[in-house]
Amino acid sequence: MLKYTIRRLLLLIPTMFFVAVIVFFLAHAAPGSPFDAKSNADKPLPQETIARLERLYGVDRPVGEQFLLYLNNVAHFDFGTSFQRNRPVSDIIGQGFPVSAQLGVQALLVALALSLPLGVISALRQNSLIDYGSLLFATVGTTIPSFVVGIFFIYIFGVWFHVFPFVGWSTPSHWVLPTVILALGPMAFLTRITRASMLEAIRQDYVRTARAKGLREQVVIVAHVMKNAMIPVATIIGPATAGLITGSIIIEQLFTIPGMGRLFLTSIIARDYPVIMGTYLLYAFLIAVANLSVDLVYGMLDPRIKVGR
Amino acid sequence: MATTAATAQERAAELNVLVRKQRSLWQDAWYRLLRNKAAIVGMVVIALFMITAAIVPTLTDLHILKSPTLQDGPHQLMEPFWTPNTQYHFSAYPLGSDQLGRDILSRLLWSTRISMLVGFVPVAIIFMLGVTIGLSAGYFGGWVDQILMRITDVIYAFPDLLFLFIIMATLRNTALGDLQGGLLLIFVAIAIVNWVGLARLVRGQVLSLKEREFIEAARSIGAPSTRIMSRHLFPNILAPVIVSVAFGIPNAMLAEATLSFFGIGIRPPTASWGVMINEGFVVFSATPWPVLLPALSISLVMLAFTFLGDGLRDALDPRMKT
Questions:
Q1: What helix, strand, coil percent values describe chain B, rounded to 5?
Q2: Which of A72, A194, A249, A275 has the CA that lies 20 to 30 A from A135?
Q3: Is the ipTM of this complex over 0.90?
């Protein structure tokens, strides 16, 4: 198990290297200079200022050379300086990341707190009204894109009833709408999986055995059915987390939340190379770790699965 | 096969016995699909959207519909006809106008064109790439397979939405990005990001099928590889491929809407639901309809494709029913 974990962690290095190569060269493939984008159309920067800025940030050199330089800097934990804000990338990300992390964790907690009971109840009362309701919710919730749901929610709760503010991240009441909307997708998904997994577990022989030996129904459900039904659910939490990470980019843009997603988007539009690289590498790393943790958790929860071969 | 079926039927007719007409697996699946009400609703909605996409240029040419880019200065931000403060220009602006005085109905209908194109064109590219590469990688194995698997590993390391953002943001100012209001680049970007999933699916299916007896039989009578792949393997992997394609179409549409919503997809003034939401957001607190109507359209299309996709999955593989 330990050997497997170490091998998977080591495999992260070439993966991240490939991601870095492709994103770096793709970002630099855009025509023109990153400093054209900074100025607005009425007042373009003079040619010599652009040249001086390019020399200052090293973007006038060949791309290959820039990449090697970047790698060298990253190896020394220096992620460069933002073109746009003239501050170290690590500072900027250090400011945005906690906001995004808070949003993501809140959304994951909300999703788990609501989807698990909903999935369990609808499986126990299969084909009841509550079951149909939760299936409908699961279908709609996984189908309608989050920014569309976000628009409806902003209209209903923000514009129409004025219950929750929907611009910024300053007070807890600002947290409500973004958290709920970000939670909705994974919640629908988890409800579906929980229900299916419960229905599968409930028909197993060991459940019949548990009933036959006279255990109380609650004990059968909690100790035998739910314990086994949670294994597939646990494995879905990894991809769900990855979904939350990318989903948060959209939500942050929609609600003007100063997190990492907004940082990423503004940086790709402004062609702020160091910030693009920093945020993208961090995202790719987080998603890779989320996927890795699933495989490890799977092995720990289910003794029938052997990882590490 | 056909002759024996016919003789069996003739003999049954002679004996005056009722026989069930023989059906192929595909016909069976089709009948199962037709029994699924949600799938039927989905198909009808999709058909309506496709018809709209096809006839909308004619409607505009005949002046039944306004041009989607025609700006009407004095008639900005008109409300739709059902709202209390509509200035009742039903014939002129049934669904209202946006902040530039453009007809929202016309823009909504023209957007279906973009959505259908973005739904079907990249998915057709993905289908051809994914099936060809997946089939040959799975069938031949060896270095072809090795290369495919290494490429898929790398592409899998990219969070797909982020990768789309990067491709669009950096390449949209190149020559490719200028073609057709950015539509062509969107096709290419969506295809690049998504072909890998299908190739992996096909490869997996082929790996499990190629050791089976019917493939061995085909090989033993000397059928060439191309024939085995196209006549024996391909029809047998089609069911999961169809399901994957059915879900790929709404995914591609959603990708376009998301990119356009962020201002890096379709270029204004071309109308697309994502562009409309992006532009309408500026005036959202004044009037919500320029945003809500395209948002509703996206939801409708997404639901229709999900219903159809779920229906297809249940119809093609009854064991998978959830």
A1: 75, 0, 25
A2: A249
A3: no
